[in-house]
User: Which sequence fits this backbone?
């Protein structure tokens, strides 16, 4: 079962290679506020900006159109670039897209490909660190929200979520509830009860 850890909290009495952790004097400590899964040693951060990583699927917004391609706001201190030759469609300023990060270099230039327009719908932003909780194990949380609301929902690893159709207001409320309670145990069951209650109204 996962437990909440704070920066500097002991995770293991031996040196271990765990992301968002550091080793000191032969012991492993958390470097962030997060959830520590002891069964499958890993730390899931509960706060912090989105740091782009190769192969992440993100939801971006076109914020500059150039001859060679597009600068994309990826909800990060760094911006993405989508080459015109890697894009099957023309995009306009303000367009919302989904895309895959293909490369992040040492100075955090972020190259994107496979862009797809996300038309209409609405965008909400949550802490990128809470995205794994919105998705759930094997997509369980996300599938539950989709089934109950009948909304199309596309989740970007960068904390942006696109929602279209169905009971989108309930989808938004549910996702924000997951974000708020991400650090708690028994979350899936509580969200399931919440959705059943809301749908039956």
Assistant:
């Amino acid at each position: 079962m996962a437990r909440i850890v704070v920066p500097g909290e002991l995770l293991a009495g031996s040196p271990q290679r765990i992301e968002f952790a550091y080793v000191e004097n032969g012991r492993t400590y958390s470097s962030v506020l997060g959830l520590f899964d002891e069964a499958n040693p890993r730390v899931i951060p509960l706060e912090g900006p989105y740091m782009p990583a190769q192969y992440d699927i993100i939801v971006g917004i076109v914020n500059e159109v150039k001859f060679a391609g597009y600068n994309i706001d990826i909800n990060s201190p760094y911006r993405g670039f989508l080459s015109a030759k890697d894009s099957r469609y023309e995009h306009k300023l303000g367009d919302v897209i989904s895309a895959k990060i293909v490369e992040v270099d040492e100075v955090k230039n972020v190259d994107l490909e496979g862009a797809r327009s996300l038309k209409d719908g609405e965008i909400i932003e949550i802490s990128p660190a809470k995205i794994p909780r919105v998705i759930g194990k094997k997509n369980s949380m996300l599938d539950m929200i989709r089934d109950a609301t009948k909304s199309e929902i596309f989740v970007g690893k960068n904390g942006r979520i696109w929602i279209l159709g169905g009971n989108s207001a309930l989808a938004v409320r549910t996702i924000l509830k997951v974000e708020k309670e991400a650090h708690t145990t028994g979350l899936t069951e509580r969200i399931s009860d919440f959705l059943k209650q809301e749908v039956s109204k």
Observations:
- The longest strand covers residues 57-65.
- Residues 122-199 form a domain with the Ribosomal Protein S8; Chain: A, domain 1 fold (CATH 3.30.1370.10).
- The mean pLDDT is 93.
